């Protein structure tokens, strides 16, 4: 067999693997929690586009469920800053904000070092929006 024919044969062998890759939207859960209240957190099922950003999944959810509303402001350096959820906004005077946490399928909770415009959720993650306070020193809580 000549070299081009060999390459073509190799590509044909690789094609089924490429076609069976999963580009479907990934299911995620979005949880809204107020750390100052005893009340049960709100939980929503949503999905994120293949390799899509969290902000996209939040928009999809807001468009389909009237119980989830959010606003954000555009920071010149870091992009979208989550300002409010369901009418409750973080306030500098009270040092409150919406913290972004992620629970992995194994139960481990992480605090992403990027915001909603950069974070790319993986399938079956639980995205937790936690209304909380930052510390006086202005270092990250
Ligand atoms: C203080 C601080 C905060 C405070 C801001 C409170 C305040 N009003 O002062 C609080 C605790 C609220 C905060 C929150 C978060 N932060 Co912060 N924060 C900082 C820190 C330590 C200093 C910022 C500062 O005061 N700069 C000086 C002032 C004069 O400049 P400024 O431009 O006006 O600062 C504003 C922006 O930085 C903005 N801001 C702060 N954090 C974030 C995060 C995002 C995603 C956005 C869009 C804006 C933003 O708030 C500041 C005050 O208005 C920086 C690290 C650093 N040393 O720069 C991280 C930093 C900016 N934060 C970061 C992150 C990831 C977050 C969170 C997403 C963490 C989380 N998982 O919850 C959240 C934001 C969640 C949301 N609601 O969208 C990252 C951003 C990286 C990135 N490329 O996205 C940084 C760089 C830290 C890091 N990991 O290295 N943060």
Keywords for this structure?
single chain; 141 residues; alpha+beta; Ferric Hydroxamate Uptake Protein, Chain A, domain 1; three-stranded antiparallel beta sheet; 2 helices; binds cobalamin
Textual characterization of the structure:
Residues 1-20 form the signal peptide. This protein is an alpha+beta fold and 141 residues long. It has one domain: Beta Complex (Ferric Hydroxamate Uptake Protein, Chain A, domain 1). The chain has helices at 3-19, 54-64; strands spanning 26-34, 42-48, 70-75, 79-85, 88-89, 96-103, 109-110, 126-133. It is elongated. The structure holds cobalamin. Residues 75, 77-82, 92, 97-100, 111-116, 118, 134, 138, 140-141 line the site of cobalamin.
SSE blueprint:
Layout: H1 3-19, E1 26-34, E2 42-48, H2 54-64, E3 70-75, E4 79-85, E5 88-89, E6 96-103, E7 109-110, E8 126-133
Parallel strand pairs: 1-8
Antiparallel strand pairs: 1-2, 3-4, 4-5, 6-7, 6-8
The protein binds cobalamin.
Pfam family, one: DUF4430
Domain Transcobalamin-like C-terminal: 72-133
Organism: Oryzias sinensis (Chinese medaka)
């Amino acid at each position: 067999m000549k070299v081009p024919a060999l390459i073509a044969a190799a590509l044909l062998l690789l094609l089924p693997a490429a076609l069976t890759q999963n580009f479907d939207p990934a299911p995620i859960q979005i949880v809204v929690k107020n750390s100052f209240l005893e009340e049960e957190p709100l939980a929503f099922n949503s999905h994120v586009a293949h390799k899509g950003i969290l902000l996209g999944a939040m928009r999809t959810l807001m468009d389909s469920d009237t119980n989830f509303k959010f606003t954000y402001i555009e920071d010149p350096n870091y992009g979208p800053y989550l300002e409010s959820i369901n009418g409750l906004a973080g306030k500098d005077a009270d040092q409150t904000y919406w913290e972004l946490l992620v629970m992995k399928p194994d139960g481990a909770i992480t605090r992403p070092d990027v915001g909603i415009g950069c974070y790319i959720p993986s399938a079956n993650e639980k995205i937790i929006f936690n209304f909380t306070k930052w510390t006086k020193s202005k270092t990250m809580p």
